[in-house]
């Protein structure tokens, strides 16, 4: 009897020491209900409940929230490394600088604005590719503004110069777009540029898919770097999900039915009916058929009873 009771309460999750104390106090012939009451009175809890009572280290975040504070929590603000949840960023420095300079001046301040925008979001891996000849003094046909920013970004290991040299007075420049796409592809990151890289898409089919899915376009609005909220179109992911390795899907929000309880569409209604949560959503015709079948079935049973001896 003692062993059977021990096994019974151990399956419930109680500790053997607590069970032995209660059986010594109440006796071996005590009822299971009395033992259970005594265990509860002593404050003993099953192991499963104790594990649930312990505070969880993970923080739940409401899905579909547009607030920046909640959005930053699942992006790594809760103490974890943000680099684990955010994608690496590879910036086309020439494209960004010329866009900020209205395609007339190579504006290095535009590169700084883009880098600062991604840093504020928590991205740790940011690389900017610029041709090496941009370190040379500016000329009339290729003016450069705020050239000292390139030196500062190079010291921070953010800026990378693509190689170039002069052969018999002619400049030989390596294709910087190839560096940009290759590094972004190897690190599974995001390309920041308004260029479509069509020549590289035709060159490599794997790069074609990657450029189509990971190209982040942008705009400059009065010295403000602004990428779109829907990088892949209206039906694509949001900007936060696009830049994150672990996207959070928003919950589907149902629009309430404008007719309310007077709606006659039944289960064919595409709107939300709060009064039908615990009811089978049948159409009006199906409900009438179900109601008529019940009295018919009852009448047939009564006839069978009357006919039977």
TrEMBL record:
One function term, GO molecular function aspect: mRNA binding
Transmembrane segments annotated in the record for this chain: none
Start and end residues, zinc fingers (C3H1-type): 251-276
Known cofactor(s): Mg(2+)
Gene3D superfamilies (alphabetical): 3.40.50.11980
Keywords: Endonuclease, Hydrolase, Magnesium, Metal-binding, Nuclease, Zinc, Zinc-finger
GO CC annotations, alphabetized: cytoplasmic ribonucleoprotein granule; nucleus
Matching Pfam families: RNase_Zc3h12a, UBA_6
Domain C3H1-type: 251-276
Family annotation (PROSITE patterns): ZF_C3H1
InterPro entries: Rege-1_UBA-like, RNase_Zc3h12_NYN, ZC3H12/N4BP1_RNase_Reg, Znf_CCCH
Recorded family membership: Belongs to the ZC3H12 family.
PANTHER family: N4BP1-RELATED, RIBONUCLEASE ZC3H12D-RELATED
Name of the protein in its database record: ZC12D ribonuclease
Organism: Helopsaltes ochotensis
Gene (UniProt): Zc3h12d
């Amino acid at each position: 009897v003692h062993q059977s009771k021990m096994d019974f309460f151990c399956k419930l999750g109680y500790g053997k020491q607590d069970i032995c104390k209660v059986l010594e106090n109440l006796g071996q012939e005590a009822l299971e209900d009395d033992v259970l009451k005594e265990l509860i009175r002593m404050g003993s809890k099953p192991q499963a409940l104790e594990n649930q009572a312990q505070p969880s280290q993970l923080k739940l975040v409401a899905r579909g929230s547009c607030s920046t504070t909640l959005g930053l929590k699942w992006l790594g603000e809760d103490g974890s490394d943000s680099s684990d949840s955010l994608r690496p960023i590879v910036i086309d420095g020439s494209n960004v600088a010329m866009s900020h300079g209205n395609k007339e001046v190579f504006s290095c301040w535009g590169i700084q604005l883009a880098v600062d925008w991604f840093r504020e979001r928590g991205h740790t891996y940011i690389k900017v590719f610029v041709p090496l000849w941009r370190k040379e003094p500016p000329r009339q046909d290729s003016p450069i503004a705020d050239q000292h920013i390139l030196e500062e970004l190079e010291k921070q290991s953010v800026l990378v110069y693509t190689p170039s040299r002069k052969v018999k007075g002619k400049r030989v420049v390596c294709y910087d777009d190839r560096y940009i796409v290759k590094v972004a592809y190897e690190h599974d990151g995001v390309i920041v540029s308004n260029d479509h890289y069509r020549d590289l898409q035709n060159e490599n089919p794997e790069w074609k898919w990657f450029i189509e899915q990971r190209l982040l376009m942008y705009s400059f609005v009065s010295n403000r770097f602004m990428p779109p909220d829907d990088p892949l179109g209206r039906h694509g992911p949001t900007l936060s999900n696009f830049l994150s390795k672990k996207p959070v899907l928003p919950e589907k929000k149902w629009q309430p039915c404008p007719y309310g309880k007077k709606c006659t569409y039944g289960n064919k209604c595409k709107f939300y009916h709060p009064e039908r949560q615990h009811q089978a959503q049948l159409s009006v015709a199906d409900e009438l058929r179900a109601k008529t079948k019940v009295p018919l079935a009852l009448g047939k049973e009564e006839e069978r009873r009357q006919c039977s001896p």
